[in-house]
Amino acid sequence: MTPLAYPPVFPDIVEEHLDELEFLWEQREASLFSPDWALADLADHEERAEAHLDGLRLSELHGVDLARERISSDDPSAAAAATLILHNSGEGQYRDLILDALQTAEQGAVEGIRWGLRQVAPGEYPSRLEALLGDEDGHRAAAAAHILAFWRLPAPGLDVLLSREDAATRRLALGAASRLGELYPQEIAAAVEAPDTEVRRAGLEAAAWLGVPGVARHCRSAAGREMDPDPEAVLFLGILGDQEDLPLLETLVGHKEMGPFAVTALGTMGRVEAIPKLLELMGDDTLGVLATAAYKRITGAGDVEGEAPFPAPEVPEGEDEPEDLPPDPEKARADWEGRKGTMTPAASWQMGLPVPSDEFFHDTQTLTLEARRDLYLRLRARGGSAVPDMELEALAVDQMSRRIPGAQAAGD
Q1: How many C-beta atoms lie closer than 10 Å to residue 118's C-beta?
Q2: DSSP string, 113-138
Q3: Are the CB atoms for 383 and 404 separated by under 8 Å?
Q4: Span 140-150, pLDDT tens digits
Q5: Exposure string for 53-90, b = 16+ CB within 10 A, e = fewer
Q6: Helix or strand holding residue 238 (H, E)
């Protein structure tokens, strides 16, 4: 291979490619489970990022020099972009810079390197990552474990990481454990009751992914308790629950703190029996927008909102202008009249489509990324290892072609 050189370039354009790659990768990570994007939208976004990465490849050492400056940045998107550039240089001396930074950099850079390394071929990286699994910095060790697990490679010592107090470490360790199919009942049980919201969410996701018995029962209990009900359990009841849970969610709609979570969960569950309640809630000043979103998630309706007020109401200083259109209950009722003859309670529905209860739904062009993830977790919780292992954070083009770590592990 010809060594990299310094071809003639416009330095400002090279730097612009890097800035755009950073921006697009940050958006990509934030939108992995978007309620507005489908898998095809994610693929289009990644194609734009790849075009900027191509420009940086062509700049050869100019791009490498910029990446060298940013690989230890505390901005995760900068470290992620630098990781992709250094990896795509194809030269071991520059790829080593990624692992050197992973070994010494602060948490923001570690997170960005994790973003980037997950999307490349394992190659020479696993042995260096394995050496980090016992690092005193729990987050660094957990990031290495998470990358290995993303590739479906062993990550010894997860039990130690799962027992750490640090929330970021526990979240990554839970994600690694679920991907590797490693069940740690005591640690998962502690996670679903943890004080940190994101740890509880990660614990519930791991429990569902691994098919841990009783996770739906836990959600019912934690959502329905009189004192301090858990909003994460309410949301997750939408993923795991069924008709029998509708009365609890509809009761929680009237709970001051839990109401917004319960309305969202009704949409996630996808039962048409909840639609009369959602139509009623569209007239509520506090819950109307969420009820409209839940109705659209079940039915796939496109135009059930009213017009934006004009002139726009004044927004208190420091607050953002609302982006959602106001609900139009009458329009939604008319829409439902045209649908209810075909959308029966015999199935659960997402985006106007009946979703199966025993296999993953592969209509990737229709379901949103959020709905697709929730359906997968529901099926994993009910079927466990009988449901094929999928990597829903892989590049969209690989998911579409099934060239993903989980699909290979499952023999697809």
Answers
A1: 20
A2: HHHHHTTS--TTHHHHHHHTTT-SSH
A3: no
A4: 999 999 999 99
A5: bebbbebbbbbbebbbebbbbeebbbbbbbbbbbbbbe
A6: helix 231-240
Number of residues written out for the chain: 412
φ/ψ of residue 353, rounded to 5: -115, 140
Q: Which residue's structure tokens are 């309640």?
A: 277
The predicted pLDDT at position 376 comes to 92
C-alpha torsion angle, residues 265, 268, 270, 271 (rounded to 10): -10
Distance CA 151, CA 71 (A): 22
**5-17 residue pLDDT tens:** 999 999 999 999 9
The H-assigned helical ranges of 31-122 are 39-58, 61-70, 76-88, 92-104, 107-117
What is the rounded distance in angstroms from the CA atom of residue 364 to the CA atom of residue 168? Answer: 31
CA distance 278 to 151: 41
Find where tokens 């107090």 sit: 165
The rounded distance, in Å, linking the Cα atoms of 153 and 78 is 26
The phi, psi pair for 394, rounded to 5°, reads -70, 165
Q: pLDDT (tens digit, 9 = 90+) per residue, 74-124?
A: 999 999 999 999 999 999 999 999 999 999 999 999 999 999 999 999 999
How big is the CA angle at 64 (ends 62 and 65), to the nearest 5 degrees? 65
pTM given for the model: 0.91
Quote the CA–CA distance of 61 and 6 in Å, as a whole number.
Answer: 5
What's the pLDDT tens digit per position in 178-216?
A: 999 999 999 999 999 999 999 999 999 999 999 999 999
